[in-house]
Each structure stands twice: as C-alpha cells, then as structure tokens.
Amino acid sequence: MSTQRKSRIVALVGNSGAGKTALATALQERFGYPLLLESHAERPYQVAFQDRSTWGFHNQVDYLLHRAEPERAWLHQPGLALADGGLDMDFIFTRFFHLRGY
Hints:
The protein is α/β, with parallel strands linked by helices. The protein is built from three helices and three strands. It has helices spanning about 20-30, 50-75, 85-100; strands at about 5-10, 35, 80-85.
C-alpha cells in the first residue's frame, strides 16, 4: 500500500458574498491549506460583463480557463487545497446564463 498522499481539492461553492473567501482564508490560517483563489479584478471581461448578453460567454470561458490551470497544476501535488469557487461554479453559472439567454 502506498503511503503517498493523494491530491485533493475542496471547492467552496456558493452565491456571491456568501463568505467563500472568508471561509477559505480562515481554514488556510487555521490548518495551512494552500488556497486557489479567484482574482476578479484581474479578469479581462469583468467590466464588459455588465452587458451579459454580449460578454457572458467570453467571461465564462475566461473563468473556466482561469480556474482550470491552478486546479490542474495542484493535481500534481500531494495533500489538500481549497478552491474559492472552482470548476463546479462554471457549471452553475453556465447553466444560469444559458437559461437567461446570455
């Protein structure tokens, strides 16, 4: 039996303002888990996203790629990391945007 620890990512998923980042930060401070945080201010379509019907798809693909890279990289590390959001959020938002015609 291998004693090597597997890679795991716990995605904190919830509505905007629900406290995902605060919880992730508190868990990181208490237990030392690495954080995979979103950086909304750095996303190129965030401002344009105010016009969801035009920029919703672009914004969502950008977030998908932005989240996928750190998660992919973490899967080569042993132990647990916390993701503020995570790829699970993309399914939720993509479905919501699709239903709204964005």
